[in-house]
Amino acid sequence: MNQERVVQVLLALLVVLHLTQTPAEGVRWLALAKMSWVGSLAEEDRCDTLVGLVKRQRRLCSRNVELMDSVKTGALMAIEECQAQFKNRRWNCSTTKDSNKLFGRVILKQETRESAFVHAISSAGVAYAVTRACSSGQLRKCGCDRTVRGRSQEGFEWSGCSDNINYGSAFSTAFVDAREKGKKRKNSSRALMNLHNNQAGRKAIENYMQVECKCHGVSGSCEMRTCWRAMPTFRRVGQILKEKFDGATEVKATMRDLRLQLVPLNPQFKPHTEQDLVYMESSPDFCEPDPKLGSLGTHDRVCNKTSKAIDGCELLCCGRGYNTRKVKIVERCKCKFHWCCVVKCKQCERIVDEHICV
């Protein structure tokens, strides 16, 4: 066997070893969202009692105790936004009662689109919450981004409190990515996938920073404007990542230049960018309950009879059919503006049809 053939065989063996390593369960730290006392951390040794953290994350916790309330807030934001974006899908980002396995096997063990989204939105959640805490003056270690100064080409003055996304993203990188960089995981294909999706989550904030301005002048004439850079709403971040979820790239791990890399499974597809989500395994259909998988199934879910999309009764109910029932809705109606300055409404009731998957 010639030398070139030996090298090819060794590289193939390395790929096999990488692909068969224990998967990196990178979002166990989201269990912090279920812990009511995290925000009251006052002593470093409390960090050792937190569920779901690896050694690196515990060390970061000990050195940055004041940031842990923001980490918990980011975890809550991520879960709530995930559930808002997927409320009409078969997989609706449901969580389990076991805080140590919050999403079940589909996120912890499998390399699916859903796992990609959870990693991205959770990484974005930490970056967002830490950045917001910096800007609001809640943290001693950071404040507003004071590097944005001077006069812009558009003629306005950079001033005000620009969101310090660089600090928020840096802490998110250090904390969220920590599990993937351990000795047992840093060379695995799953860890590489998680790190890519974590970064894509942070890019959904960094690349969509907005310019907000305040006018100055007589009677709001806007003779002069002061502006600052602000993060998009977290709902907008969720929408961006949901679009990336729908267009996610299926990839495989391969050795290139003695380094493990992710490339499109279909060579005809163009390479993914750092903003795109990637996955390595097809998703289950989520039609039936499977506690270990993290699927609640779609039985008893409300569906849209007139929709042909995934929220429609045919797709959401997985072809099982649906039942229709009458429900009473109470809503505000006949609202009137009263001078000055109150809007008064009446309570109206109406009966509507509700369709439930069998």
Overall 3D geometry? globular
Helicity level: 25-40%
End-to-end CA span: 62 Å
Mean pLDDT: 85
Largest sheet: 4 strands, mixed
Radius of gyration: 24 Å
The total of beta strands comes to 12
β-sheet strand percentage: 15-25%
Strand order of the largest sheet: 1-2-4-3
* Unreliable runs: 6-24
Question: How would you sum up this structure, described in words?
Answer:
The protein has 358 residues and is an alpha+beta fold. The chain has helices at 3-19, 55-63, 68-85, 105-108, 113-135, 165-176, 189-206, 234-246, 313-316; strands spanning 150-151, 157-158, 210-216, 224-230, 249-256, 259-264, 278-279, 289-290, 295-296, 302-303, 322-338, 342-357. A hairpin with a 3-residue loop joins β11 (322-338) and β12 (342-357). α3 crosses α5, α5 (113-135) crosses α6 and α5 (113-135) packs across α7. The protein starts with a helix and ends with a strand. The model is unreliable at 6-24 (pLDDT under 50).
Q: How do you describe this structure in short?
A:
The protein is α+β, with helices and mostly antiparallel strands and 358 residues long. The protein contains nine helices and twelve strands. The chain is globular and about 65 Å long.
Show the helix and strand layout.
Blueprint: H1 3-19, H2 55-63, H3 68-85, H4 105-108, H5 113-135, E1 150-151, E2 157-158, H6 165-176, H7 189-206, E3 210-216, E4 224-230, H8 234-246, E5 249-256, E6 259-264, E7 278-279, E8 289-290, E9 295-296, E10 302-303, H9 313-316, E11 322-338, E12 342-357
Helix pairs in contact: 3-5, 3-8, 5-6, 5-7, 5-8, 6-7, 7-8
